[in-house]
Amino acid sequence: MSVRDAVAQYLSPLYELQADLRCDADGCAHGRFFNARLSSRFRAICCLRTGRVIGHEAQVNSNLLEERGLNVWKLLDHAASDQESIVFDRLCRALHALNFYRQAGTGAGELFLNVHARLLAAVSDNHGAAFRRFLAALDLSHEKTVLQLPLVSADRRWELNFVADNYRRNGFRLALKAADAVQALSLLEQLGPDSIKIDAAAVADETVMRRLLSEAQMRDARIIFTRAEAPQLRVALQGLASRAAVPIYVQDSLWETTPGAQAAVA
User: Fold this and answer.
1) How far apart, in whole angstroms, are the C-alpha atoms of residue 214 and residue 260?
2) Domain extents for the chain?
3) Taking the model in full, what pTM does it have?
4) Which tens digit of pLDDT belongs to each residue from 199-234?
5) pLDDT tens profile 55-74
6) How many CA atoms lie within 13 A of 10 on its CB side?
7) Could you tell me if 219 and 12 are in contact, meaning their C-beta atoms sit under 8 angstroms apart?
8) CATH superfamily of 41-59+77-252
9) DSSP secondary structure string for all residues of 141-178
10) Rounded to 5 degrees, what are φ and ψ at 226?
11) Would you state the pLDDT for residue 263?
C-alpha cells in the first residue's frame, strides 16, 4: 500500500477537517492541520552511564501558514471537538512514525508517542487497532512503538486503565508519567508499564527512589528521568545509579535531534 493510501485509510475524516499529510521530495513527512504546518522533532532517551540511545520521544513542531489562525498547541486543551482531537492525534502519530522509521539504520531504538490527556475519554476501543493497521500497511514496526500515557488524577485512573489495556492488546509498549516516586511505584504495580517517566527532581527522595528502581528492574521496566539538564541533578542521578547498581535513563533537551528521511516507504 502506498503512503498516501495508508494515510487516507487511517485518517478517514481528515480531509473534512482541513488537514493533510504529505511527503516532500526528500521523503520527509509534513502535516497540515487547519492553517498550521506540522513537522517532527525527536528527543533522545539515553542510558546515563553509557550514553547509549535506547529511544526517542516524538514531538510536533508547528508553524502557522497565516499570520492569524488556530494555535494547535491550545487545540486539545480548549477548542477542539472529540473528533478534531482524535484526527489531530492520528495525524501526529502518522507524521512521527513515517519520519522516525525512515531513519538510516536500526539503532534508533523505540519511538515514544504521546497521548494527550483529553484523548483518554475520546478514544474508542479500536484506536490501537487502527494505528497498528496503519503501521502494518507500510511495513513499519509496532513492536518498538511506545505509547506514552499522560499523568492523570485518581478519579481518571479507570480511563488510563482502559486505554492502556487497549494498546497493550494491540501489541504496543506502554510508558506512563508519574508525579513522584510513590506514584510511580503504584503505577508500576497496578499497570505494569514498560517505562515510567518521572521528573529528575524526585531523585531527592532517595529511599523511595531506590525501592522504585529495584522494583522496576525486577519487572524489566525502565525508569526515565526528565528535565535533568541541571548539572547538580545529573550528578545526583549518577550517584543514585552507582549506589542502586541499576541502569538509569535520562531524557532532556541536550539530546534533541531532527532526523531526516533516509529510506523510502513504498
Assistant:
1) 37
2) 41-59+77-252
3) 0.87
4) 998 888 889 999 999 999 999 999 999 998 888 888
5) 999 988 887 655 554 555 56
6) 31
7) no
8) EAL domain (3.20.20.450)
9) -STTEEEEEPP--GGGHHHHHHHHHHHHHTT-EEEEEE
10) -105, 165
11) 31
